[in-house]
Write a structure and sequence with these properties.
This protein is an alpha/beta fold and 340 residues long. The chain is built from 14 helices and twelve strands. The chain has one domain: TIM Barrel, CATH 3.20.20.
């Protein structure tokens, strides 16, 4: 198992996280991951880090597919890979309907079919084996709609990529999306992952691997785990309760919150329902107070560092190949890296 570092939405605060990223690069942390939602973008952050690091992989967790055309994403991926000397990891995700339609102003649509087409187009563009063309349900290249000029023609990237295939990871939580990730992606980016409850995903992962004719080793499970260090375990749990309440309770609407659904599949149905009701009714503190201790202990690393080191055993025994740490604590990063 390898360790990664998640720096979140850090574009406006890159000076705060840069020393930690540079440390991660020096001590052999495998990867650093930048995020985007509807503020700081991930591409600019990763381009900056490409110039300030030497060895660490640079991952997008994630680039929002509805925000960019597949060809634009291919251009971005090839450029970042060239700037970093072949260290870029392309993490893709759909985001959710609230962000897609409320911020980007495009239809959420049919996520499975769009994702399959999107990944295929990006890979064709990067491979440069032929001028880019695609005839799908959601994407047609060249464009052939009723309002087309008719002047479009298949093109081949004028940038020769460092690698003909850039590792592509998919963020997915729902069963069908997880199956698709296991079928077509190089890696899977789950969040709120519990190594004790992997059976929730096992059927879907195995179905996707079988459909793609792949072995389990072909898919890197790169799970993000949030870290709250300190001598008082209860206080550390409390520090993370608002985060869990946000995702389980507020990251989506009633009946359309993928994280709430996942908590239910894990066996936390009653708690997940109560957290969501309180959160959406405006009682965020009350929602946070209802997050079960077990949920935090299983999906995060909390308490003294020795406790975290002991906890690594469960993660190492799981399907996870890359454990991405959500931390700003340099001492924790060094200690966990030493422990591995």
């Amino acid at each position: 198992m390898r360790l990664g570092l998640n720096i979140g939405y850090s574009g406006a605060a890159i000076g705060d996280v840069l020393p930690l990223v540079e440390l991660a690069d020096r001590i052999g942390i495998d990867s650093v991951w930048a995020a985007e939602a509807y503020g700081s973008d991930a591409v600019t952050v990763l381009a900056y880090l490409a110039a300030r690091t030497e060895r660490i992989k640079l991952g997008a967790a994630i680039l929002q597919m509805p925000a960019r055309t597949p060809a634009n994403t291919a251009m971005t991926a090839m450029t970042l890979d060239a700037l970093s000397g072949g260290r870029f990891v392309l993490g893709l995700g759909l985001s959710g309907p609230q962000v897609v339609e409320g911020w980007h102003g495009v239809a959420y649509g049919k996520p499975l079919a769009r994702t399959r087409e999107y990944v295929e187009i990006v890979r064709r563009a990067v491979a440069r084996e032929a001028p880019l063309s695609f005839d799908g349900e959601h994407y047609q290249i060249p464009y052939r709609g009723d309002d087309a000029t008719g002047l479009g023609k298949p093109l081949k990237s004028i940038l020769h990529p460092v690698r003909p295939r850039i590792p592509t990871y998919l963020a997915a939580i729902g069963p069908k999306n997880v199956t698709l990730a296991a079928e077509i992606a190089d890696g899977w980016l789950p969040i709120l992952y519990s190594p004790e409850r992997e059976e929730v995903f096992a059927e879907h992962l195995e179905a996707g691997l079988a459909r793609g004719g792949r072995s389990a080793g072909a898919l890197d499970v790169a799970a993000t785990v949030w870290v709250a260090p300190g001598p008082d375990v209860a206080a550390c749990r409390d520090a993370l309760r608002p985060f869990f309440a946000l995702y389980v309770g507020g990251m989506g609407a009633r009946g359309r919150n993928f994280y709430n659904d996942l908590a239910g599949r894990y066996g936390f149905e009653a708690a997940a329902r109560e957290i969501q009701d309180l959160y959406l009714d405006g009682d965020k503190a009350g929602a946070a107070a209802k997050v079960p201790d077990d949920m935090i202990d299983e999906m995060a690393l909390v308490g003294p560092v020795d406790r975290m080191v002991d906890r690594l055993a469960a993660w190492k025994a799981s399907r996870v190949g890359t454990l991405i740490l959500g931390t700003s604590d340099a001492a924790v990063l060094e200690r966990l890296q030493d422990a591995l």
